[in-house]
Structure formats: C-alpha cells, structure tokens
Design goal:
The protein has 100 residues and is mostly helical. The protein has helices spanning 3-7, 30-57, 64-96. The two termini are 17 Å apart.
Length: 100
C-alpha cells in the first residue's frame, strides 16, 4: 500500500462529541482560516490607501489622524502576516529535514 492510499481514508477531526454523520458544524480548515486572515489584511491596506487618498485630495471629513491610524493598522497587519509566513516556512523546513 502506498503512503498516498494509506492516508486517503483519514478524515479531518470533528467537534468533540460529534459523530461522522452529525449535523454539528466542523471547525474551519486551515486554508479557509488563512484566506480569511489575508482578506482582512487586504481590507486594512485598502482602507489605509483610501484614507491617504482622501487626505491628499482634501475630501471633506478626511483627517490626517484617521489616515495615520489606518496606515499603522495596515502596517501591523502586514508585519504579522510576514511573521506567520516565516514561522510556517520554519515549520516546513523542520519537518522536511526530519529523518525518515
């Protein structure tokens, strides 16, 4: 039996107390969690860009303070994203270098 067929029958874990056919919601998978997080980072960057453009064009209601706060939020979100990416790469390298 090949390793691929050996893991083909493995199922994702379900919520405690849930059975295979139950209607309880399953925890979100890693990909959907990552996609949601990246969408939030993208939204923060978009909002920062809009706030900066509003200040630069002199739009009514736009303030430099709001633009700076939005820019800082986007910067923190981006730095956190890069830190998570670095940790994932380090974890991958660790697993990749494990002896078989």
């Amino acid at each position: 039996m090949s390793p691929v067929t050996a893991i083909a029958h493995v199922r994702a874990p379900t919520a405690p107390g849930a059975t295979a056919g139950s209607s309880q919601a399953r925890a979100p998978d890693f990909l959907s969690t990552l996609d949601h997080a990246l969408s939030r980072v993208s939204d923060a960057q978009r909002q920062a860009g809009e706030a900066t453009r509003a200040v630069a064009s002199g739009a009514p209601g736009a303030s430099l303070e709001k633009a700076l706060v939005a820019s800082d939020r986007a910067k923190v979100a981006w730095n956190a994203t890069v830190a998570v990416r670095n940790e994932l790469v380090n974890a991958y390298d660790t697993v990749k270098n494990m002896p078989v």
